[in-house]
Amino acid sequence: MTAANGEGRETFTVAMLLVPGFSLMALASLVEPLRAANRVLNRRAYEWVMVAETPGAVSSGAGLEVAAPLDLKSAPATDLTVVVASLGVEGFHRPKVFE
Question: 72 and 95 in contact (C-beta within 8 Å)?
Fold first, then answer.
């Protein structure tokens, strides 16, 4: 959840749920604007955490792996959760993930 970032200002936190086969372009399109905003603002206004169905490395559609150290249940409270996926996401039926 939005919390003080040590400077008395709030930090907006985003959980990024990586679905196997996710698009690297989608992930970069999500992370880079937040990173750039932090740089322009000269503070950590935005934070993000990678999460997955089970903690560990998640392979992108290009075969590159990204670490997702947490699942949604063990992730800290966040302001927003975004599903990072790609083509074929309709095959990702995991009711436990979305409970």
Answer: no
